[in-house]
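Progress note, sequence design subtask.
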């Protein structure tokens, strides 16, 4: 048997080659008219069904549209709300309710007999005493000098450690390095100062080793000119590892495809770090830098107080220790409260200024730009 040949015919043509429509005559219903009043024969073959257009309706809101009310949301998240209540209570008790005590800054406060309700108001006399005290301005400048030293020497080190740890391929080695650098954060300042005393003091290990080899020893713990570098070194050893956590979390969120694309383009390790890793860390660096600048006057009180007598008040006095010695220890609580209010306002101004600089550099900072 010979296979039958299949013939494909054009549905728009008849057997004799005429251009009659395949579905009937050219006057059939539904055919479109041409510009001369006639009808096109192929219109039924190529026309598509007309879609029914519906007018746009406004989206429904509320529970009927799939949303939930605030009571339903509260009932759904009641476990999370109960978990946050202790933190909110601590925040109110130790941070916001004590703000009411700032009224002492405007009183001649007598803590023993009159109290807050009976102490007379003196207006801004306590602030006037602060601004007229030359010692206060010396302490303020010394505090800012120590802060700038710590900012320059301390702030970049957690970033460098995070970049170094992030390049370690072995998970076991990475965990070991993280444990070593995190551990000093849990030491008290008493232990930290003791360790530095045993290492760099006049009878420390370094001084003894130098004497044994014919060199003159030294005592860094009692050197006033070296004090700001000493406290910066102590802060690096104690808290640098803890600051690595934030930067490692930011590095974990970087898309690995960016590194692969950079490697395909021929970028080496340093160029990948400069063009991929550091831009990913910029928002976190800007945020932490703004917060760090905001705490310029809030240095570690215990760290400075433990070493104040060794180097003298001229080199080690900061605003917190000055308020302690001239205000609280002598019973002049109005003076101490006024200095505390000044410190708070100065810190707010520093945060706003640093955040403005972050906005100018294209970063969000603490809050977004409106």
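Output:
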């Amino acid at each position: 048997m010979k296979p039958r040949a299949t013939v494909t015919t054009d549905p728009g043509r008849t057997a004799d080659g005429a251009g009659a429509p395949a579905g009937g005559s050219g006057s059939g219903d539904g055919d479109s008219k041409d510009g001369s009043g006639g009808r096109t024969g192929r219109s039924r073959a190529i026309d598509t069904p007309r879609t029914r257009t519906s007018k746009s309706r406004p989206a429904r809101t509320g529970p009927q549209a799939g949303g939930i009310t605030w009571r339903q949301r509260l009932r759904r998240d009641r476990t999370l709300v109960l978990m946050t209540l202790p933190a909110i209570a601590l925040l109110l008790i130790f941070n916001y309710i004590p703000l009411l005590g700032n009224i002492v800054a405007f009183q001649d406060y007598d803590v023993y007999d009159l109290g807050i309700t009976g102490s007379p108001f003196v207006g801004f006399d306590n602030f006037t005493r602060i601004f007229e005290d030359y010692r206060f301005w010396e302490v303020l400048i010394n505090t800012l000098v120590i802060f700038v030293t710590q900012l320059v020497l301390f702030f970049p080190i957690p970033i460098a450690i995070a970049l170094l740890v992030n390049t370690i391929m072995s998970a076991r080695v990475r965990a070991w390095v993280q444990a070593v650098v995190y551990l000093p954060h849990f030491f008290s300042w008493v232990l930290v100062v003791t360790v530095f005393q045993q290492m760099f003091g006049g009878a420390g290990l370094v001084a003894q080793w130098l004497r044994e080899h014919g060199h003159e020893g030294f005592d860094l713990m009692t050197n006033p000119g070296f004090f700001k570098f000493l406290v910066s070194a102590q802060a690096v050893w104690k808290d640098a590892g803890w600051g690595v956590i934030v930067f490692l979390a930011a590095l974990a969120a970087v898309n690995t495809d960016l590194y692969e694309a950079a490697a395909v383009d021929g970028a080496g390790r340093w160029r990948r770090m400069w063009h991929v890793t550091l831009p990913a860390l910029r928002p976190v660096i800007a945020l932490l830098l703004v917060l760090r600048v905001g705490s310029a006057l809030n240095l570690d009180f215990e760290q400075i107080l433990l070493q104040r007598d060794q180097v003298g008040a001229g080199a080690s006095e900061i605003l917190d220790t000055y308020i302690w010695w001239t205000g609280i220890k002598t019973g002049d609580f109005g003076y101490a409260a006024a200095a505390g209010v000044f410190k708070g306002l100065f810190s707010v101004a520093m945060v706003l200024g640093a955040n403005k600089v972050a906005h100018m550099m294209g970063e969000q900072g603490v809050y977004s730009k409106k």
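The radius of gyration is 38 Å. Work on this subtask will continue into the next period as scheduled.
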